Amino acid sequence: MPRLFTGLELPDGVVGQLALMRGGVVGARWLEPEDYHVTLRFIGDIDARAAHDIAETLGLIRRPKTPIRFEGLSWFGGDKPRSLIAKVKSDPALMDLQAEQERRLRRIGVEPETRKYTPHVTLARLRGVAQRAIADYLATRGALLAESFTAERFVLYSARDGSGGGPYVVEAAYPLG
């Protein structure tokens, strides 16, 4: 049963810039740079038939190329940090692309996403890391210097069974524009 999600690939230069943020947080499990992506929609563990339907419905999406601009570093989880992220600006084209994916996936029976969509690139997973440690990390890292780019396609990724971790595999790619 594959674990699926959609996202936007990052250019090599941006991957290199984000990879410079690795390190400096005890207890962080840093993602491999080749697994960096702008998350669009987590789908979850899906059987083969549903995976086929998902790939097919995503192929119906027609959206413009999407500008991607980074806003800085942050974390998810409030006072119990669970992920260190590079925040992505909520551009209308990006938000429309994500919303259309949500609508189309719901129509074919995929459970709705309950969390508000926040565009981001996950840099590290955090378990048992204090909020103070993350605040110190962010204070010493300064501003995030990552180039803007235009996404020309979105992809359907699969993750390793059970763990949800990388390496992530591109199962299908869908052009934008």
Secondary structure: elements and pairs:
Elements lengths: L2 E6 L3 H8 L8 E3 L7 E8 L2 H11 L7 E3 L1 E7 L6 E6 L3 H16 L12 E7 L4 H11 L7 E3 L1 E7 L9 E7 L2
Written overview of the protein:
With 177 residues, the chain is of the alpha+beta class. Helices cover 26% and strands 32% of the residues. It has 4 helices and 10 strands, in the order βαββαβββαβαβββ. A 4-stranded antiparallel sheet has the order 3-1-9-10, covered by helices on one side. Strands 2-7-6-5 form a 4-stranded antiparallel sheet, with no helix packed on it. A two-stranded antiparallel sheet has the order 4-8. β5 (70-76) and β6 (83-88) form a beta hairpin. The radius of gyration is 16 Å and the shape is globular. It starts with a strand and ends with a strand.
Explain briefly what this protein structure is.
By secondary structure, the protein is an alpha+beta fold. The protein has 4 helices and 10 strands, in the order βαββαβββαβαβββ.
Describe the structure using short key phrases.
four-stranded antiparallel sheet; 26% helix; 177 residues
User: End-to-end span in angstroms?
Assistant: 32 Å
What is the CATH architecture assignment? Alpha-Beta Complex
Reading off the top of the CATH hierarchy, the class is best stated as Alpha Beta
| Element string (H = helix, E = strand) | EHEEHEEEHEHEEE
Largest sheet: 4 strands, antiparallel
The CATH topology assignment is Cyclic Phosphodiesterase, Chain: A
Shape: globular
Number of strands: 10
Q: Let me know the average pLDDT.
A: 93
Rounded to the nearest angstrom, the radius of gyration is: 16 Å
Structural class: alpha+beta
Total domains: 1
Fourth-level CATH superfamily: Cyclic phosphodiesterase
Instruction: Walk across the major sheet and give the strand order.
Output: 3-1-9-10
Percent in helix: 25-40%
Low-confidence stretches: none
Specify the number of helices: 4
Strand content: 25-35%
